[in-house]
Amino acid sequence: xxxxxxxxxxxxxxxxxxxxxxxxxxxxxxxxxxxxxxxxxxxxxxxxxxxxxxxxxxxxxxxxxxxxxxxxxxxxxxxxxxxxxxxxxxxxxxxxxxxxxxxxxxxxxxxxxxxxxxxxxxxxxxxxxxxxxxxxxxxxxxxxxxxxxxxxxxxxxxxxxxxxxxxxxxxxxxxxxxxxxxxxxxxxxxxxxxxxxxxxxxxxxxxxxxxxxxxxxxxxxxxxxxxxxxxxxxxxxxxxxxxxxxxxxxxxxxxxxxxxxxxxxxxxxxxxxxxxxxxxxxxxxxxxxxxxxxxxxxxxxxxxxxxxxxxxxxxxxxxxxxxxxxxxxxxxxxxxxxxxxxxxxxxxxxxxxxxxxxxxxxxxxxxxxxxxxxxxxxxxxxxxxxxxxxxxxxxxxxxxxxxxxxxxxxxxxxxxxxxxxxxxxxxxxxxxxxxxxxxxxxxxxxxxxxxxxxxxxxxxxxxxxxxxxxxxxxxxxxxxxxxxxxxxx
Amino acid sequence: xxxxxxxxxxxxxxxxxxxxxxxxxxxxxxxxxxxxxxxxxxxxxxxxxxxxxxxxxxxxxxxxxxxxxxxxxxxxxxxxxxxxxxxxxxxxxxxxxxxxxxxxxxxxxxxxxxxxxxxxxxxxxxxxxxxxxxxxxxxxxxxxxxxxxxxxxxxxxxxxxxxxxxxxxxxxxxxxxxxxxxxxxxxxxxxxxxxxxxxxxxxxxxxxxxxxxxxxxxxxxxxxxxxxxxxxxxxxxxxxxxxxxxxxxx
Lengths: 489, 250
Fold this sequence. Notes:
- The complex is a heterodimer of chains A (489) and B (250).
- Chain A has 489 residues and is of the alpha/beta class.
- Helix content of chain A is 31%, strand content 28%.
- Chain A contains 16 helices and 19 strands.
- In chain A, strands 1, 2, 4, 6, 7, 9, 11, 12, 14, 16 and 18 form an eleven-stranded mixed β-sheet that branches. Chain A has an eight-stranded parallel β-sheet with strand order 3-5-8-10-13-15-17-19.
- In chain A, helix 5 packs antiparallel against helix 12 and helix 7 crosses helix 8.
- The N and C termini of chain A lie far apart (52 Å).
- With 250 residues, chain B is of the alpha/beta class.
- In chain B, helix 2 packs across helix 3 and helix 4 packs across helix 6.
- Helix content of chain B is 37%, strand content 30%.
- Chain B has nine helices and twelve strands.
- At the A-B interface, helix 13 and helix 14 of A face helix 2, strand 7 and helix 3 of B.
């Protein structure tokens, strides 16, 4: 079809991705299962990486070998056999569904409820050949992406895959990669450093307010970033960026283990707002399948009066291990963490944040809302740490847990370490069961039981949801309702 | 059961936690009528209201409830609302984080969907709700606030009346809507109830004071004692109750 070809050409021109992209490369290659130095070298070679990056990966790999998988989180899962994982693998085309008819009807029902057009559904569900369709289907997005790229270029903003950035901006990448989450930070971070597949690189130059919200959705090559995603965002002095990660629609995903690393750096007076909606496959009602999401996200507020704000809505994954944190190293810098974590059926989430106050007059706010349904376990784990030299620190923490079922668990594990007496630390926590009176009141006004639960839960999460960018917030609200379906009783 | 029958309750027996509260209750309400059920605390008035609305844990062990010719005992609470039933709460519930507007719009759309109608547009909804709120002297600010959160007793009851007006039910069961109101709030609430009166609608007032009935004239007054209606009469029965007390009237 001429139209499709035209679109493809256009996309190829715009991105340079379609012709030489990672995707087509990958389809031809596959490394054997398991992890070794050879595999790390193979990955690096495949991506034609410079020597320094290979060395960096190898250093991480060697560190990883000597580390142990953490077991302190309140999550249980069978041992992971790291020799049974493909660390560099093409999506196996023979496993792809041929059409939507072969896709899990549950997934399709969810797409329908979220109002996703048919062709986009095919892409999300990984239907064979859908990428070509995708390029065509996202034509609107592509045109958005074009104007988008031009506008960003004008502003001097760099927004590309990290693999590209390694080649195009090696100095920047080299300067910042691993400075917030070093190779030997923790077991999963080390693993990521050794084998990271792809991810995003963003650089906002001095004094620039990024003219639009950056969303992975508009990055054409956002697909196939794989299970070891790596993101690096640098906001130079006086700059601002809002970054949206994720998509409210669940992607069909065969990878069970995900270990991403996200590093944020703000220089003087800079601000990064990072919003996540995580909706990966949570497994079925009996806890079969589902993603293990072991993520290390950390921000370094390096500059004076800089600010990082994390907002997350976590509804997916079978097991979540995630603590987006802020190291407040610049005087007067500000860290914020707004979180909604919903668990249903047999999901387990151990999530929270760390606010490390290193410099004077730093401030942090933590608002966490945990909702447990089904037979799930939901744990908030947070650390507020004030170092001796940090005068005049303030922190406010509020952790609320809502139990939707009587068979689920809510846990709050706050750690507070204060080494400077001038600090003002406030901590509030509540746990409650969803109220029968509220449910009946809603039902007696015409809401069915699931709508009633969704409405009450959305109200409970209001303080967090209002920090999400507008369009995201509306979808995230729908998503909360969907995640809690079948949870009543 | 007449052709005009709005609500027909026959030999209704209801248990809560295995304790029988309603013990064979009969009640017939026709379209166009306002009935008042009066009784002391513990007589089972609220149990009747909750049972009609379909609350869980109110176990109907015997009898029938027919609403506008339809057996509603097997219907979920929201389906009963869709059929045209409204329950005004004795203690309206607070829902933090949910704005009154959002709550009412979700409720109205739930009802419209049940009836196979389209969702109301945002503009039409705002027009409707502003008009109803103005009738009941509710400020625009209160519409934006979280449902009943921080509302005074009177404001909560007024909010119930606005919700009723927006949903425009065939039958409104108002459980102690008059309790805890000062005289001005009582008058406003009474105006709301009177505005809901028509030849096609019916209202069941549940109360243990006569004073609401000074502003809303009932067609029939029932006296309820120990899970049964023991006496029915005209509005003069309410005055008699006030004067002589329940024991003597029954």
